[in-house]
Amino acid sequence: MREMVKGSNVSLAALSENVGSVIVSLSWGSPTGEGDADVSVLLLDANGKVRSDADFCFYNHPVAADGSVQLLGKTPTADGSEDRISFDLTAVPSEVDRIVVAASRYESARFVELDGVKLSLADGSGEELLRFAIDDADSVSAIIFGELYRRGEDWKFRAVGQGYDTGLAGLATDFGVDIEDDAAVEEVRNKAAIDDQADTTAPALANEPQPHGTLGAFPAPRRPDDEVQPRKPTARPRTAKKKVTLPKAAKKTLAENESWKEARLFPVSALKSDRDRETRATSVLLSVMAQAPEFGRRLTAAFGAPAGRMETFTEVTLPHSDTPRRPDGVIRVERAGKLWTALVETKTNGNALKVDQVQAYMDIAARRAYEAVITLSNDVALEGSPLVDVKIDGRRKHKVALWHLSWAEVAHQAQMLIRHEGVGNAAHAWLLQELLHYLQHENSGCHGFQNMGPAWVPVRNGIDDETLCQGDSRALEVVESWERLIRQVCLRLGGELGQKVLPVRRARRGTDPKALRGRVADQLCLDGKLQAELRIEGTPGVLAISADLRIGKLRTSIEIPAPEQGYPLAWAKRLVRRLSEAPADLHIETLIEGETSGPRGTLERLRPEPADMLPKQNGTQIAGFRLSLVKSMGSSRGNAESGFIRSVDDAVHRFYTAVVVHLEGATPRRAPSKEGATG
Fold first, then answer.
1. Which residues, in sequence order, are bridge partners of residue 40?
2. Quick check: 104 and 38 in contact, CB under 8 A?
3. Cα distance between residue 501 and residue 494, in whole Å
4. Whole-structure pTM value
5. pLDDT (tens digit per residue) in 421-451
């Protein structure tokens, strides 16, 4: 792996033979676990400008029209979070000379508050080729991490590390993007005007670039005096056809009564065995991937597949020693006469992947020069721990990547497209709706992680009778199952809300995930609690979950900071008003500076007397408020209505919808502009 320094460059072909598609990852962490940023990508022509606004990919426009760029979203890491971007370099139009990769923070946040800011680049097989750490991130709100650029027929990468004081709006306008947000543009222009006034004593520098740490290859921010005459406002150009999303309210049914069942494209009533479920689920998923290109590309881009014509197959027979093998499916993508191929192995219900099967498919893929093996099951992979441990023959020149998808992640991606981001046409939206209905049906076997494992009951019993000792391997198994459950809760809630939901990992930079789980398991043996935190985009705090196995209770809570202005009594009254529709048993605790606890009570008791939330001592500093709901948790392994997994899912969903959405600072998902639905 190549360690890059600022200003250095390298040819991708010199690092790997498999660089037609690459994955770029931007990652960072923070001491509180709450720091985050948004990635963006700009496709530039030979003049260093975007050809149109469609060449600017960001959170409201995550996929380039030609499929060459796709923002894959965030995944949690031990240090914080990682944002991944898929680049199909074979699909980049010839007019695009270079591709800028950047990230920005919002409002007053700055990169100096984040730790471990870095970029890494991996080839199509998932092998990391290079890494670029930005150790001098200053008080800037946006950073250009690096750029991919052409040199003849090859692509090269340059480590940039350039900071911008003017945030995402300033960065985008520098490269020719027409920002519709007038307030954002005005902020950029005001900043530039201030800089101009500061430079009046040095006219020789008037034409020098202004971004923090500027390199000569990048244009300077636009100055107000570049536009002496005011421009007439122009409509933002349409960059794609209008996208289709599901209506928020379902149409009134024409059925005579509830016993009439709507006809479905993918029926599930005839599924009787696990084999039937696996065969049907594979065929349903692969057929929708091929017929709805937005969805198929969304799943395969994360695996290094190019953007091209996709065909999918089921029950394919392939030779292997004396016994032919039949993987559940095959995905083939053709781009510029080249084929990308992945074998697919599927499991439904609680069935686990078999190591010998996956190993055989890895061997077949290597011999036939296929690019990947993709496994699908209800299980959720953990960071730093492969779901299936296979042996790789290092003597083989051709590398095969092993990837895993959970059915919960498949459902999440379908939800994000048809309910929030939109797809290309009504037929594709209908196909995805049918897929989602199939996956969520109780008979499909594709319900996601649904079993806490064989160690769950013995661990709970050991906690009850105080016989569970530190170092018990069963406690570690439960901690791993808990982490899988939390990751799935994030997927489901994020799909419902259309917002980023990530587990918070409060650990020192570079902490080994396995070692961290070991410490959590030892703590479980001591206090009998499983705990997690979720960061939900647009909320004023972190949603905490605590499962107390000693008393069988689930607690969901959030801490919100005290307002910077006003009086404590006004804060208390405003909070109670905002929570007018929250459950009466909501527990509210006032957080006091330097003390472990403050006044507390239920919402029902505090509604008529909000002043009871205030400390009696004069001059006491209120730091904020903690809101909590407590409910009993299910005791079975998770498949029944009363199951632990179901109760955790329900508790998080109830707390968010009944409490968090009413809080000041809780914002809906960032909506696109007036033309945002167009792409």
1. 102
2. yes
3. 5
4. 0.80
5. 888 788 999 999 999 999 998 889 998 888 8
